[in-house]
Design a protein that fits this description.
- The chain is mainly α.
- It folds into two domains: 6-180 and 298-327, HUPs (Rossmann fold, 3-Layer(aba) Sandwich); 215-293, Tyrosyl-Transfer RNA Synthetase (Orthogonal Bundle), CATH 1.10.240.10.
- Helix content is 54%, strand content 7%.
- The protein is built from 13 helices and five strands.
- α3 (55-71) crosses α12 and α4 (89-98) runs parallel beside α13 (298-327).
- The protein is globular, with a radius of gyration of 21 Å.
- The structure holds tryptophanyl-5'AMP.
- The site of tryptophanyl-5'AMP (TYM) has 24 residues, from β1, α1 and α7.
Length: 334
Amino acid sequence: MIGEKKVLFSGMQATGNLTLGNYLGALKNWVTLSDEYECFYSVVDMHSITVRQDPATLRKRARALLTLYIAAGLDPQKNCIYYQSHVSGHAELAWILNCFTYMGELNRMTQFKDKASKHADNINAGLFTYPVLMAADILLYQADVVPVGIDQMQHLELTRDIAQRFNAVYGDVFTVPQAYIGKSGAKIMSLQEPSKKMSKSDENPNGSIYLMDDPDTIRRKCKRAVTDSLGEIRYSEEQPGLHNLIDIYCACQNKTPDEVVKEFAGCGYGQFKEAVGEAVVAILEPLQKRVAELEKDKSYIDGIIKENAEKANYFAQKTLRKVQKKVGFPEKIR
Ligand code: TYM
């Protein structure tokens, strides 16, 4: 708790082009929850270097992502929006937690297996211990709740296990966090291969809607989305392409699948795809305009970066000091 409020932590990587999945699965819920909780929203740039990055591009993308958080509706006066690399406590706690995490646990992480197969020439230790850094991100702020998409659930389970293991040895040091999964949009799939998650690293750009796609591109991608030959609007696992489009529409319009199926009963897929395209444009077009406006105001963004890094450091240090003492590090002489 900070004051009267429970704590929320979440983060996003500044790698690649963000997709509609990132928005509907995470960012949209962050905004909804942002009044109720004391929130920490990090641009997790330290996670990004587990795969090779061009430094100038990473810096640019990190800033664009931080701007996007604000453009999406997070108030940087109330929510702590900051770069992970500006708070050294993340790395310090990650080291300690590394000593409370088993190789076997990390070996089971599906994201590690997946990324290791995609980057076979660079299976570095950071890629392997990435979930420990993620646990440190969350536990450093004593977060109660962590809004994420379904693909991050395994990492969150591990975070809970690490926290409970540490607490079992040293007493109640960490809050054991809960995942928050939104009612819709928690697993947006590729428009071209609906068995695969919509992902920024997808080689087929038509599979993903990128947050910065222009309206016509969004409409075209929706129109070309893979469906089936049944020709009936139903919300069924047997129609994965349509299922995904219904999920997207629900998340954009805050509707339930039942409502959507009723709304489009008797319509053809073409008409529904058009409606999905318009629903996505209605969300992304204003978002893009706000990003463009904010980008012009350099000193405003710089001020936020500075102030929020200080705020994040303050809370991070509180937890870190407690943990360092528990594990037996000598106290600093001040
Ligand atoms: P990242 O950067 O891959 O994704 C950011 C958020 O977007 C969600 N997401 C999706 N949701 C629905 N459908 C999709 N197709 C989709 N693709 C991505 C993710 O679930 C995530 O919530 N390891 C994390 C970043 C991270 C983090 C943390 C998150 C680092 N430390 C601490 C929470 C708490 C990651 O790579 O997310």
